[in-house]
Structures are given as structure tokens and as C-alpha cells.
Amino acid sequence: MLLSLAWRNVWRNARRSLITMSALGVGVAGIVSIFSFREVANEAIVSDVTAGLVGHLQVHALGYQEAPSVGLTVQHPLQVEATLERVLPGAKAERRVIGAGLAGAGDRSAPVMVLGLEPGASALYTVKDGAGLGAGKDVLVGKDLATDLGVAVGGELVLVSQAADGSVANDRYTVAGTFESSSAELDGNAIAMSLSEAQSFFALGDGVHQLVVRLPTQREDVQPEAQALRAALDLKTLEAVSWSEMLPQMKASMEQKRKNQGFVDFIIFLIVGLGVFNAMTMAVFERTRELGVLAALGTRPRRILAMVMLEALWQGAMAFVVGVALAAAILYALGTSDLSKMLGGDVMGVRMPTHLELKLLPASLKGAAITAFLTALLGALLPALRAMRLQPVEALRQS
Amino acid sequence: MPTVEVQNVTRVYEEKGMPPAQALRGVSLSVEKGEFMALAGPSGSGKTTLLNIIGGIDAATSGEVRVDGQALSGLSRAALADLRRDRIGFVFQAYNLVPVLTAAENAEYVLQLKGVPAAERRARVKDVFERMGLGRFLDSRPLKMSGGQQQRVAVARAIVADPAVVLADEPTANLDQRTGAELMDLMHGLNRERGTTFIFSSHDPMVLSRAQRVVRLVDGELERAEVRGP
Hints:
- The structure holds 2 protein chains of 2 kinds.
- Chain A contains 13 helices and 12 strands.
- Chain A is of the alpha+beta class.
- Chain A has 2 domains: 2-49 and 250-397, no CATH class; 57-243, no CATH class.
- In chain A, β2 (92-105) and β3 (108-117) form a beta hairpin.
- The two termini of chain A are 26 Å apart.
- Chain B is α/β, with parallel strands linked by helices.
- Helices cover 35% and strands 27% of the residues of chain B.
- Chain B has helices at residues 47-54, 77-87, 103-113, 118-131, 147-159, 177-194, 205-209, and strands spanning 4-13, 21-31, 36-40, 62-67, 70-71, 88-91, 165-169, 197-202, 213-218, 221-227.
- In chain B, α3 crosses α4, α3 (103-113) runs parallel beside α5 (147-159) and α5 (147-159) packs parallel to α6.
- The relative contact order of chain B is 0.20.
């Protein structure tokens, strides 16, 4: 009967209860939407980062991460790959050479990043025009760089750089195609060639600069895998770094957004909590005489406290359900919209997604539920304590 | 053993900046089981204060009250609540039914507090309602009922848990003469039929004429008692 009585009391002043529940529901919807949006966006960014240029982990020659140099290479990369496959089952490795140079075509030239990639194994780019990456002297040019250099498919360009042995590296290449990637930096600055050609161009032997590791996981935190890999590598000559260590500012930005949400949650529910407090104070005040009657009939003070708290809990529960439904609708609407004005652009060389597969994340419900119910309970606590402490004889005198 | 025993009870109300107001001055009273007793006296004579102190919803400044052998002084708020639940029924002047509960649920409330199973609660309430001519109002909401009907439900709520004593503070004050008389007949009938002890306050001669014993209070003092027989 206590639950039923609390439920009916909620609807005694339906307008006030609806306003209270609306405020709570909007708060829940805000928290769930912001949480889900942020986490799906983070997931998309991490997915882009790990599927593209950076990967989940990278193995380098010791010191390369701190000060990249064309001469710092991973020797015998196939042996390292074998170790990696043993330690991290299901992981895929991609060997890469990365160097800098000067590209010239006609009377135009530009500083470029030279990527040596395994033909057919790299998910770093998609061919925009022309053919894919082949062996020999064919290269792919970033679509924006191609525009800058004024080269098209079938055109020629000259690359000049310094090889690992200190000699001048230079050669003439045919543009087999142009590419686009998830990074504006690559699109505007990179030239891709086959791994073997890049090794030859920079005089690296079988050495590579990066072994990019992609793990069979969507997890953001890959430190356990990084630790496992480090344990299996010769750390006197090699280093293994995770994507978050390579892009610490991006990781810090994600963490900061999470911390900010805690603050936003607090502000939302402080405001909503004051609303609940006000509504429950009025509800108790209006029913002072009735509460005195219940006390006179033999209701223990704690039961009166429980009754008022249950009333707030009912409102919290309904607000939670409505808030989650509202959040689902908001996320659906955003998920079917073009977010290029809201997101887009590049952050730290990574192109932000303009469309997100938004969904309501179960993890967002836990925090929203705890916060919604806690807000309802905390907002009702003082009025409930007042109701509990009412002296029956005083309460019965209230008109 | 008397059902209610009041020994030399005083009640002084003190408020800041106001002189103390003495509502009861050394009142002693004994009410035997099955009595149908009235507290008479003009407004402000202390009738309600005495009923509140017997009912454990107000505390005496000095003196002792026992209900069904249990001394009230020194009991915690929770223990007093339990005592009211188990041994005392209240009927208020303004009915004071809970508007969001049906008439039957109002009467069931005390039984539920006592932990009586739902089926038994419903059966007991139905039985009492039918005996009191309230059978068709079981599922009615109080605000849809007349004052007389609401006060009968309040009496049903007071007696359904078989308390040691029912305290009724001016139970007919909000009712017209005929309905008031019917209510008094009903209460008297329950007193005779169930042996329930009733103490009620009033200054209405019609109501007082129904009482077996009338105790008069004037300015917080017991003036005299009249015994009128069964």
C-alpha cells in the first residue's frame, strides 16, 4: 500500500509532478545523449586513427618515436612480425617506410612525405583516380598534393631526398593514381610507393620505420596489448608504442571531455535537484495535516519518511524512462543528419567524422540512472525528514 | 484494570514571548473497558488536549497516562506510534480520510500497518462496512461521499483493528443534527456489540445524552462526573 499510496500522491498535483518529471527527464536525456554522442564520436575517431595512419600499436627502432630519423629502422621486420603474431593472436601488422623529400613536377615543387607501403595491405588510403599501388616506379599522390603539383594520372614527378647511408636519393616516378585518406595531412603532402621501392630509394635494405599493428578489438585502451608486446620484444633495439602514446593530446582531449561531462552532470542535476526539493517541500507542506493523521493512526516516523521518498522515486523512475526515450529520439535525429557543420575538419591530422552511427550506449544509462534517482532522493530528503519529524498534534492543527 | 487511567495530568503550553497557558490542571480519570464516555465542557476547556494526551499524540507536562496498562511517558516516537496502531482508534472532527485512498483502503490502512494479510484485511473491512451500512461505499473515494458517510468510514477505520479504546474528538461537530444522531447511535451500537471502549468529546446536549458517563472539564480541571447508566 505504501508504493500505491506514494504513486497516487504523485498524481494529486499532476501539473506540478509533470513539471518536476519533465525537468528530471530533460536532465536524463541530456546526460544520456551527451555521453552517447561523445563516446560514439570518440569510438569513430579511435577507429579512424587505428585503421589509418597510426594503428593500435607501432613497433619502431628504439628512439624513433622521440626523434624520427630515416636511419632508425626495424631490422628483420618479418621476424618481429612473427613475434607479434605469437604474442597478440589475431593482430595484423603492416610494414611501412616513412621519409621526407622534395617532389617536383614541371616547374612546381613541394616538400612531401614519402610513404613506402605494402601494395594491397594498407588501409591507409583509397584510390581516387587511376590505378592502385603497384611495384616499381609507380606512385600514388595525395589528391590535394596532386593539385598543388599540377600532376595527373600518367604524369611524372621527381623525388629528391637523403638516403639512410647519407647519399642523395633521387629518382623519377610515374603517377599511377591519386588517393584520399582520413588525414588532410596525407592528402596534401604524401606520396605513396611500394615498400620495396621505398626501401631501395632510402637505402634501407629490408629495414622499415614502422610496423603498424592493428588489433582485433574496438577498445580504446590497448595498454595491456602494448605491455604484452613490450615483454616479448628486445627493448634494447626496439620500442612498442600505443596510439594514445603517439597522440597524447588526442587522448587527453577525450579524457577532458569525459571529465567535463561529470561537471555538466553535476550542474544539470543541481538545478533539477532544487526543482525536486521545491516540489516535494510544497507537497509535504500541503499535506501536513494528512501526514499528522497518518502518524496518529500509528504510522511510524520512518514509514512516513519512506512514503515521501518513494513519491520522489516514482517521479525519478518515470523521468528516467521518459528521458531515455527522449535521448534515443535525439540520437536517432542526429545520427541521420549531416554533422559536417558540427564536426568535420581535422584535429591533430585526423579528419573528424561528418556522420556518426549514433546509438544509445548502455553505459550511459548507468550513470544517468544513478544520477536521476540520487537527485530525486536527495531533492526529497529534506522535505521527507521534515515530514518524519512532524509532531502529530501540531500537524493536525494545520488547516 | 482500567482501559485508560489518567493520573494528575497537567499540560502547560509555553511559547516565546507569551505567558504559559495551562490547558490541563491535575486531571485524574479512569475509564473502564467497554465504557461509552463523554468529555463535556465549553471550547478551550481542555477536552481536545486530554484526548490528545490519552491518544499519545501530545505529551503531558506532568502526571501519568496508561492505556491498556501501558504507561505512555518515556516511550519513543516509534513506540508511541506502535501503541496508537495497536490499541487506539481515532475519529476526528473533520473526518480526515486520506483522499487518494478508497473508503475501504482508508479502513485497511491500520490493518496493513499491523501486518494483517491482504485477504484478511479486505474481509474484515468488508464485514465492518456491511455492519455499518457502508457496503456500497467500499470502493468510493472520500471526496465523493457526504460528510456523514465519511465520518462513518472514519469510525470504521477506528474500530476495524479492534483497539482498546476509540477516541473521538467532537465527531458530530461537522454533521447536521440528524446525521450526528445517527452517528452516535452507530458508535453506541458498536460499543455494545463489540465491547469497544469509546471516549468522545462534545458540547452538544444530544451527543452527551447518549453517553453512559459524562465528565465535565472547565478551564482544564475536572469539574464533575455524571453517571447515566448503561
